[in-house]
UniProtKB/TrEMBL annotation:
Protein family membership: Belongs to the bacterial flagellin family.
Keyword tags: Bacterial flagellum, Cell projection, Cilium, Flagellum, Secreted
Protein name: Flagellar hook-associated protein FlgL
Location in the cell: Bacterial flagellum; Secreted
InterPro entries registered for this protein in UniProt: Flagell_FlgL, Flagellin, Flagellin_C, Flagellin_N
Entry GO CC: bacterial-type flagellum hook; extracellular region
Flagellin N-terminal domain location: 4-140
Upper classification of the organism: Bacteria, Pseudomonadati, Pseudomonadota, Gammaproteobacteria, Salinisphaerales
A molecular function GO annotation: structural molecule activity
Biological processes, Gene Ontology terms: bacterial-type flagellum-dependent cell motility
Domain of life: Bacteria
Underlying gene: flgL
Chief localization: other
Organism: Salinisphaera hydrothermalis (strain C41B8)
One Pfam family linked to the record: Flagellin_N
Length: 405
């Protein structure tokens, strides 16, 4: 077989170029630390690497979303912590206000204290987060949650609850509408007694006791009304939920216990006048707005007590506010408990996500990253092979028919 000079040169050049390419490829891996720098380096491995990188990016996105969720939930929790403190202060002020020996000046001072609590609650209800979005206005992030005058505030947001996808199979709500925080009660809320605003007698309800919480009518709304006055006074009880009259024109005596259906009873003291009435409700919307409850109590405390009727109005208002604060505090604590559950769930998901992130990075590294020891060895061998190819070509290049053996 004859080998032409051109063939020898071409083979020698190609061998050198092949070895240079190999040295360059291994050198690139050493420089980048990666075994796969482009799909052609390992097509199958590159496809696996792409899938793993996408999964890792999704996991990182969920981690970022969880961080956002934790920030929003923690912001709400901080506000509700202040609300809890404010309600505790309101309870203390109401206990002080129930002291019958206070003067008008003393009550006015307590009214100022309670007004401060009211302002604190209103500030929390209308609070905004770091982005300037209303915390308790639902989807209406640019709205003021509660608007109106003291005692007549209305919720101006909506009932929306923003959700974030914090895991592949879980979404978490990250806000509570103000109506469910400041104008709602739990299922276990206490009954609240409301004296009609037109009452002119001196009656007060001294107690409101649960007889049987499992009674079929427990939870209904009852109305207690009086007819006549003095020794001829009578009372009637109507279940306003069913419309049934439970007691009709029974003789009234101050301090007696009056049954309100099968599960509730109250004790009324004082002298009624014709037409005086009370409503006993559990979870009524008019009783649930703690902002209005405190504002109305402040207004009543500032009115002078100069008659038995005025004293009765004050006592009934304070008693009503006490139960409203209790109900509101229970509701706020329930909301906070729910927030705590969500934050705990996010912590668990973070731990799972962190573990997955480590696993993803390890798997990506196994496919993508180069084995430095092996690569250095291959690089040395490739350089030796290149040098050998260069030397061989150089030796062959010098040979001719005229060369001396």
């Amino acid at each position: 077989m004859r080998l032409s000079t051109n063939t020898i040169y071409a083979q020698g050049t190609q061998s050198i170029l092949d070895q240079q390419t190999r040295v360059s490829q291994i050198g690139e891996k050493l420089a980048t630390g990666k075994r796969i720098n482009k799909p052609s380096d390992d097509p199958r491995g590159a496809a696996q690497l792409l899938d793993m990188q996408q999964a890792s990016q999704i996991n990182d996105q969920y981690a970022s979303t969880r961080s956002t969720a934790e920030t929003q939930l923690s912001t709400e929790e901080n506000q509700l912590n202040q609300v809890t403190t404010a309600l505790d202060s309101a309870k203390q002020a109401l206990v002080q206000a129930s002291n019958g020996t206070l003067s008008n000046a003393d009550r006015d001072s307590l009214a100022n204290k309670l007004d401060g609590v009211y302002q604190q609650l209103l500030s929390a209800a209308n609070a905004k987060d770091g982005n300037g979005d209303a915390i308790f206005a639902g989807y209406s992030s640019s709205a003021t949650a509660f608007t109106g005058s003291p005692g007549n505030l209305v919720y101006s947001g909506d009932q929306g609850q923003r959700e974030l996808q914090v895991d592949g199979s879980r979404r978490i709500t990250v806000n509570d509408p103000g109506s469910s925080v400041f104008a709602a009660t739990t299922a276990n809320a206490k009954y609240v007694a409301t004296a009609d605003g037109s009452n002119s007698g001196s009656t007060t309800y001294a107690s409101l006791d649960v007889v049987a919480s499992n009674a079929s009518d427990f939870g209904d709304t009852f109305k207690l009304s009086f007819s006549g006055s003095g020794s001829s006074a009578t009372y009637s009880v109507v279940d306003q939920t069913t419309g049934n009259t439970l007691v009709s024109n029974a003789a009234y005596q101050s301090g007696q216990q009056i049954a309100l259906g099968s599960g509730l009873q109250t004790t009324i003291k004082g002298d009624p006048t014709n037409g005086d009435s009370y409503t006993f409700a559990k979870g009524a919307s008019s009783d649930s707005n703690i902002l209005n409850a405190l504002a109305n109590t402040v207004a009543t405390l500032r009115q002078p007590v100069d008659s038995p009727a005025a004293q009765a109005k004050l006592t009934n208002t304070i008693n009503r506010a006490n139960r409203q604060v209790d109900n509101s505090l229970d509701n706020v604590l329930s909301v906070r408990s729910n927030l705590g559950t969500k934050l705990s769930a996010l912590d668990s998901l973070d731990n799972i996500g962190d573990t997955q992130s480590v696993t993803d990075k390890q798997n990506i590294s196994k496919i993508r990253d180069v084995d430095m020891v092996s690569a250095i060895s291959d690089f040395s061998l490739a350089k030796v092979a290149l040098q050998a190819a260069q030397q061989t070509f150089s030796s062959v290049q010098k040979m001719s028919l005229f060369s001396q053996g």
